[in-house]
Design goal:
By secondary structure, this protein is mainly α. Helix content is about 50%, strand content about 5%. The chain has one domain (about 5-135). The chain has a two-stranded antiparallel sheet with strand order 1-2. It binds iron/sulfur cluster (SF4) (2 copies).
């Protein structure tokens, strides 16, 4: 079935699956590069949900994770822990899934080219699904 034929709930489910499908590949590489990071990207401003993130989670019947008030934008993200992000990737703000710092991007690109090409195809599909879901 083409994604254009999916209803909003089906789109949300497909988007969740798309995020889950790319997550292991990204995590293989974050496990390599992030432990040596000197400027961790997880500032609180990146952990804030936009209206589309909220609509996505609601469509899947999920409660929005706790939103502490009065937290500085530059403070450590509300969802970070000593072992990394406390949220599964599909529950994170979409901007987190879209973000690849240079060392992470280089790590992704320099590995097995077939794997990287497959990842890139899946990622493009994920972006299309998100656009269809949001209508933006
Ligand atoms: S993704 Fe990049 S910037 Fe963020 S913690 Fe990992 S190495 Fe650092
Ligand atoms: S939600 Fe997770 S990945 Fe995104 S900025 Fe916060 S800790 Fe980092």
């Amino acid at each position: 079935m083409k994604s254009g034929q999916l209803n909003i709930n089906e789109l949300a489910l497909h988007l969740k699956e798309a995020i889950n499908s790319i997550s292991p590949f990204i995590e293989e590489h974050t496990a390599i590069v992030c432990p040596n990071c000197r400027k961790v990207c997880c500032a609180d401003k990146h952990g804030r949900y936009d209206k589309n993130d909220i609509a996505f989670l609601k469509e899947l019947g999920m409660d929005i994770p706790p939103q502490p008030a009065d937290r500085e934008e530059t403070a450590a993200c509300r969802y970070i822990t000593k072992t990394g992000c406390s949220l599964q990737r599909w529950m994170r703000p979409y901007r987190c899934t879209l973000f690849f710092c240079d060392p992470l991007m280089k790590s992704l690109e320099k590995g097995d080219q077939k794997l990287y090409m497959a990842f890139d195809n899946y990622f493009q599909n994920l972006i299309l699904l998100r656009r269809e879901f949001t209508g933006e």
